[in-house]
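Example record

The entry below shows one chain as it appears in the dataset: sequence first, then structure tokens.
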Amino acid sequence: MSLLGIDVGTTGCKAGLFSEEGHLLAASYAEYDIQRPQPGWAELDAAEVWDKVKGTIRQVASRPATDPVKALAVSTMGEAMVPVSADRRILGSAILNFDARGTEYLESLSDVLDNERLYRVNGNTLGNHYSLPKLKWIKQYQADLYRQADRFLLWGCFVSFMLGAEPVVDYSLANRTLLFDLEKETWSDELLEWAELDRAKLPDTARSGTVIGQVSPRVANDLGLPNHVSVVTGGHDQCINGVGCGVIEPGRAMYGMGTFICMMPVFSRRREPAVMMERGLNTEHHAVPGQYVSFIYNQGGSLLKWFRDTFAAAERRQAQQTGQDIYAALLAEMPEAPSSVMALPHWAPTGPPEFISDSCGVLTGLLLETSRGDILKGILEGVTFYQRECLESLPAANIEITDLAAVGGGSKSDVWIQMSADILGRPFVRPKITEAGILGAAIIAGTGSGTFSSLAAGVETMVKLERTFTPNPRQQKLYDGRFEKYKRLWPLVKDYVRSP
């Protein structure tokens, strides 16, 4: 028997088929574009993405049926929700977390419920990147859609529902709405009343690794899957990435190198809200029972994509025709030494600790002889300096990180991982399978369906490490000096914000 992991991200989706021993049998990937129908808006065409998801499943299911699929689980982005009908029709697009819609409600919401109370219930503070403000915007400005939708489903729940399962979301994704009670592990009546939203519009909740149905016979036939494939609750992609690289215990952190650069430390008990809030740190259920995680992130991967599309559009088109890896070619152009270019990575709204929405990206140190590789390395260094500034605030919250596990598309680059180790001053490990989202989802599918006795047993069986990257003392010292200069950059330019 085999296990199917599905990973749906902001700009692309993947499907991976694994043996019960952790061998990758088949994989498929499809990319899609963010829709921007108006300035400040960012959404996904849910019907298009669902078609792409089905396509990746068909690709992996088309391999010789020597290992029929037993179970599947889904790893997905957080916050964005898809409106659906009870008969599984898609009714609209999914508003993404960095969409500006919903900002107008933040002031009135904060007047009714303060951030400390919200954090004690939900583990997050008020922000426009969560689902709640987007739902309020839909309720006011798309009233017909709000009324017609039977449910608004986070993507992990949505994909499972469209496959034939019940509308059930796991705790980690439910947390991304601002409407979930961490302690009670269900929707919060208090927060729903505060937001003036309807409980009936939301899915049910369950732990990651819970069987919530089977792929329907019609969908199974369409996708080439066998009958009776169990659908298991997966989770927020960062949590599932953690499972897929073995980050399931306190003291370790996942370092996701995808559309977002996300550092995810694990801890076993909740911290005081004031300590966490001061550092912009959330608290969320891990996909591992009894563990919590927090996220330190920025849009590093999106910056790499921007660089590709801006500085290498012709090479990108050629690479698409020939099947070459354009990212590997671009990263190979970076100089070995730290770049002379310094970047403030504020191309889009930032993450912890300040969640700045009106800043702009900055490049300094440009000269006539500056190369394309210098600019790219400066950008990636700036992304990593951002992470280091947050990392240095963690000990005061009694959160320690001894090592990091690199996952995601960027982790295929030795150069990028080594640079990250040198800047952060921590060893990095890279698993043999760096697409931890699909692997983590497969492990959870195996745990929920009884293939493994526990999640830890599934991780031990399926996660294999390939290499350890230790900080280079000479490079680390150079980066220490560059980091001190980086810390002075944002205060110098903070008054220069986006034009209205």
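Notes for this example: The longest helix spans residues 372-391. The chain has a mean pLDDT of 94.
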